[in-house]
Structures are given as C-alpha cells and as structure tokens.
Amino acid sequence: MLCVRGSVLCLGLGFTIHRAPRTVSRWPGWGPRAMCHPCSSSSQNRSGSEPPVHRIPAQYKPSKFDKKILLWTGRFKSIEEIPSLVPPEMIAVSRNKARVKACYIMMGLTVVACFAVIVSAKRAVQRQESLTRWNLAKKAKWREEAALAAQSKSK
User: Fold this and answer.
1) Could you tell me if 40 and 53 are in contact, meaning their C-beta atoms sit under 8 angstroms apart?
2) CB-CB contact of 34 with 17 (8 Å)
3) Is the backbone of residue 128 left (phi > 0), alpha (psi -120 to 50) or beta?
C-alpha cells in the first residue's frame, strides 16, 4: 500500500521516504538525499490522532580499527574522545581520507624504490656485473657439478 502525507511517502513494506528540501549545490547530484527508514505502517495509524513515528537514523559503534582510522585522519585527538556511537557518514568520510593517505604513501614508496633500483643498477655497472654474466657463471658451475657427479657414478 502506498500513501502520501505531505512530504512523506509511506510504503506498505513499513518504510517511509522523506522528500528532501530543494537546495542549491555546487556539484550536481550532491545535496540532501532521500532518507529511508522503517516506521509505523499506515494500517496501524488509521485514527489520525497520533502523528507517524519516525526513528532517528541509525548510529554506528566503531570498531578498534575504525577508531584508529578516526585518529589517523585527525577527526579526534585521542581514543578517549571518540564517542561510543558515531554517525556512519563520519566513518565513511574517515575511511575515504585514510584510503587517499595510504595511496599517497604507496606512491611515495614506489618513487623511492625506483630511485633505489636505479642506484643499485648503476653500482652494478661500475662493478661490471650483469645478469648475462651471472647466468653464464651459474650454468658453468652446474655443468662442472654434473661432470663431477657423472665421474663419481662411473667409478
């Protein structure tokens, strides 16, 4: 069953959709979003004397990892300052900031590793080392070991 009360759309499944007020946003598609949460169905509230019951949006209990992310992103100064229940949007924003910081750290480490490989390769060239020489020496050693093993078997 579907019914409309002002700016609230009640669905027969026990959910309501609130129409968000129109606001001006710099980015299209960003702004207040329609909230959907369980409420009393229209069949329970036929008398009309009681206003419809709406619940506060759910709060999220952060885990230890979420608390570390909240600290790392600078949302709180210490673990003691973090409340027992925080909005899910705060966790989502903190996770996104942590993801971006981790990407920046990985990019920096990649650049440092590239320079380390370049320096290592230049030092190997100065010592006149190359993969070809190293591979030929290794194969010569294997041939000698195979020849010694064949001689010891033939005795």
Assistant:
1) yes
2) yes
3) left
Q: What angle do CA 78, 89, 35 make, to 5 degrees?
A: 150
Structure confidence by residue, pLDDT tens digits, 65-97: 999 999 999 999 999 999 889 998 999 999 999
Quick one: how far is CA 17 from the chain centroid? 29
DSSP 29: T
- For the entire predicted model, the pTM comes to 0.50
7 residue type, one letter: S
- CB count in 10 Å sphere of residue 10: 20
- Ordered by start, the domain boundaries in the chain are 1-57, 119-154
List the structure tokens of 97. 């900031």
Tokens 């591979």 sit on residue:
135
Decide: residue 94, CB within 10 A, 0-12 exposed, 13-18 middle, 19+ buried. Answer: buried
